[in-house]
Write a structure and sequence with these properties.
By secondary structure, this protein is of the alpha/beta class. The protein has ten helices and 14 strands. The protein is globular. The site of adenosine-5-diphosphoribose has 27 residues, from helix 1 and helix 4.
Length: 311
């Protein structure tokens, strides 16, 4: 049986780090595509040459042409411009809409049966662009954000409590922006709600740090945005899909009647398997959580409205 094929559009920080993690997990053959001549080829060869040491047997190819991505099982779109200090994710909208549009057109042409995972920001709007342009069934288009936001929440909880990362689970809903909705009620340490360990004030501080987690990294890096944790999140999604693990993970998925969203991609827990988004999991929310979620969805809607002007 041929190995699964994963193409990564944009061989920058997130794209190349994702390729590294996917190769290490031996999830399939990898194509790294970028507009910069030689750069994806160089990174792909360098990565391939780590294979004998790391012990993975997958092919990794760098390219500037979409023909090399033909018949991919999964296409990860990271092409675009990352933000710099002082920029919000939304400031990237005009330039990244054009870049993601071009990527999605090429996915539709060269890999009509692929599952698309969008990483480019502003995430919720860029997933809309990819779905709209590719015209793929909605369960085959999704965005990586929730796992990243949740892993930040999990990190801060684990560090605060000085417990193993392995035991901390957390859920973040909504858009991938300042209005995201960390859900402490559904966040646990080995099944025990975090409210058993932490006072509400501390939980609020951790939730706020999570909301601003991307900005914290941007301010430290000064030249770009986060990529280790985003790439790890993408690799987790690719693994759940290709191995048909059916993991329950927070992703930007199409919601119509679900959560009464009315036809937008927003962060919700989903079942991720070989078909893509196989189910949106609807959580019962308190009225306060519901209000925050609705506000977050409103922010996504206005972002999508702006994006449409650049399509
Ligand atoms: N086609 C292919 N690649 C492109 C195109 C295009 N039209 N336009 C830009 N790129 C490439 C750039 O050449 C660059 O190598 O996309 C890559 C982006 O990489 P980085 O600048 O390192 O950005 P990165 O940190 O990887 O972030 C990429 O993911 O998390 C989001 O906000 C982030 O939108 C940003 C995206």
């Amino acid at each position: 049986m041929p190995r699964p094929k994963i193409s990564i559009i944009g061989a920058g920080n997130v794209g190349a780090t994702t390729a590294n993690l996917i190769a290490a997990k031996e999830l399939g053959d990898i194509v790294l595509l970028d507009i910069i001549d030689g750069m994806p080829q160089g990174k792909a060869l360098d990565l391939l040459e780590s294979g004998p040491i790391c012990g993975f047997d997958v092919d990794i190819k760098g390219t500037n042409t979409y023909e090399d991505t033909n018949n991919s099982d999964i296409v990860v779109i990271t092409s675009g411009v990352p933000r710099k200090p002082g920029m919000s994710r939304d400031d990237l909208i005009s330039i990244n809409t054009k870049i993601v549009k071009e990527a999605a057109q090429n996915v539709a042409k060269h890999s009509p049966n692929a599952i698309i995972i969008v990483v480019t920001n502003p995430l919720d709007a860029m997933v809309f662009v990819a779905a709209h342009v590719s015209n793929f069934p909605k369960h085959r288009v999704m965005g990586m954000a929730g796992i990243l936001d949740s892993t930040r929440f999990r990190t801060f909880i684990a560090k605060e409590l000085n417990v193993s990362f392995e035991d901390v689970d957390a859920i973040v809903l909504g858009g991938h922006g300042d209005s995201m909705v960390p859900l402490p009620r559904y966040s646990t340490v080995n099944g025990i709600p975090i409210a058993e360990f932490l006072l509400q004030d501390k939980i609020n501080l951790i939730a706020e740090r999570t909301r601003k987690g991307g900005e914290e990294i941007v301010n430290l890096l000064k030249t770009g945005s986060a990529y280790y944790a985003p790439a790890a999140a993408v690799a987790e999604m690719v693994e759940s899909i290709l191995k048909d693990k059916k993991r329950i993970l927070p992703c930007a998925a199409f919601c119509d009647k679900e959560y009464d969203v009315g036809g937008y991609f927003v962060g919700v827990p989903v079942k991720l398997g070989r078909k893509g988004v196989e189910k949106v999991i609807e959580l019962k929310l308190t009225s306060e959580e519901e209000d925050t979620f609705v506000k977050s969805v409103e922010a996504v809607k206005s972002l999508v409205a702006t994006t449409k002007k650049f399509l």
